[in-house]
Amino acid sequence: MPKRENMRKTVREWIEISEYDLCTAEAMLKTKRFLYVMFMCQQAVEKILKAIYAMNSSELPPRTHNLLYLVDALEISLREEELMLLSRLNQFYLESRYPGERIKLAKAVNKDKAREMLEKTKGVWKCLRQKLL
Asked: Containing H/E element for 77?
């Protein structure tokens, strides 16, 4: 398979996984696993950014989970509130992996906060997804 076709396949796979993660965030909200709503929101945004990276550079994206780093590497212009959302979501990947931080983060997220963050994530996700059309 030519390199270009491999990259198209890679981009499609990143998009599919990102969509799956967004659906998983919705499922976690329904089951009241609010910390995991946040984690899956971070994952969905990370993977759509990696799809954009793969499409734009014809290379595999860097092995990072830092959303702001990916936005910067892609030179994507986002509004300040969107950047703040990504900064907040970063915490739920990086810090949620460690026991003390995980408990503290879990206490900071309730149903209303998780729902709000999911809705904001969907908005940013749609904006980023448009860059792949």
From this structure: none
